[in-house]
Amino acid sequence: MSRGVHPAFHTKSVVKLECKYCEKNICARGMRALLLADTNVELYSTDFPPENAIQLIGADYSTENCECRIKDSCITSCNNGHFWMFHASAVIPAERLDQTGIQIMLWGSLSNSKEENEFPDDSMWMEECIR
């Protein structure tokens, strides 16, 4: 079962996300979402930070004890564990298939492994995009 995902999200499909502009693979653990404040805004999210793909924006700060740069995230409310969001207009989603290669992968069956978010072979990614 995927880490921190509320049972209500277990039946949602897992998607791979690619940047619409530079075609870079963003993640292999995406989920379609809607902005709760405005349900006309379609988003995609992921539970692992995309490596070498995005830069955090907004104010950061340091404490008196160290010079580490800190950014806050709201984790006190009920959530699906996804803190990295992408506008649907900026990404190209492709549904992932399960180990059989036939059924669409669901969040309830996705492992907790960070390797699930990596793209070991771009040719496999392209093959699945063509399907």
From TrEMBL:
Annotated InterPro entries: YPEH2ZP
Annotated Gene Ontology cellular component terms: cytosol
Family annotation (Pfam families): YPEH2ZP (PF14976)
Family: Belongs to the FAM72 family.
Protein name per the record: Protein FAM72A
